[in-house]
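Notes from hallway chat w/ T.B., transcribed later so I don't forget. T.B. wanted the structure written out for a chain they're using in a teaching module, and asked if we could keep both sequence and structure tokens in one place. Agreed to drop them here.
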Amino acid sequence: MWRYLSVLLYPFSLLYGLIMWVRNRLYDKGMLTAVEFDVPVIAVGNLSVGGTGKTPHVEYLIRLLKDYFRIATLSRGYNRKTKGFFLADGQSTAEQIGDEPMQFHQKFPGISVCVGEERMLAIPQLLMERPYVQAILLDDAFQHRSVKPGKNIMITEYSRPFTHDHVVPFGRLREGRSGYQRADVIIVSKCPANLAVAEKERFLREINPQEHQRVFFTTLRYGALYNMLDGEPVNIPAGENVLVACGIARPKPLVQHLRERFSKVYLLPFPDHYYYSRKDLEKMKLELERTEGNPKIIITTEKDAVRLHLLRDYIRELQLPIAVLPVEISFLFDEADSFNNYIFDYVAGGGPDAPLVQEYP
């Protein structure tokens, strides 16, 4: 069935790919304007639709820079229930700014987090309200050509690299494979922690990076579970059964990780960026009661937690135990220092006269 359906979808992929190719050529030739800013701008994105692990890579950059530079993140705020420019404050919610920006805001309160569909307009507004910002991280902006970043970081997933993919709807690419040429850095994400050097070399040959490009390989590293409501550590004995409730594009790596520790992992999936309802919580409680073993607990992601937090009062009422599993990325082949220095050299060289700071105003 899929074989015949894919034949029908392929012409649409060709048409969409052609439209994107023409658009990119217009930007490359200067017929469409891309705005540059004096402040260092780093764009993090991908060629494909979701699931490459972009968020933990943005968080890596935040951790790398936040103690030395006054930084800001700018996202579109996908699936938020507002429009226009918003600068996060103490009253912000995931509904206002989106789940990923809210995650940045909660985890890194010392940075500026904002959202805006039109980055070209949002950046001047950000700098007007926060003139001390010294570097901007553009989240999911690889195809947003109206802003020309100083550094373009493109992420591709190890198990589904862009080199084997096709343009939507036949495949998962937002534009043709040749779009990778705009990247300054290509990161192969979600690699096995024990990735062999021979496999790395095979990937490099397949990607065939251009002279100006650098390629890095990262793996996911999961942290310790903590209670969603109070932040206290949660200890679940190895070998128990757990229920995973999450709305993310690619839950498979998460489930695989948990299966290494627990006897059985039951998955209750929701759509990516999904806003939970009371009925969803009631469904979680019912599924949890059906799960064998003790202790009975639900595991979710940090991205889901910021959306679930909107229903925290009802979660307390249901006495629903929810543990959050944080995730970070780690560079393979001892290349973290090389990446860090590359980013530091750019931000320090492209910022104002005195980029290093000791405290925020």
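Follow-up for T.B.: The longest helix spans residues 2-28. Might be a good example for the class.
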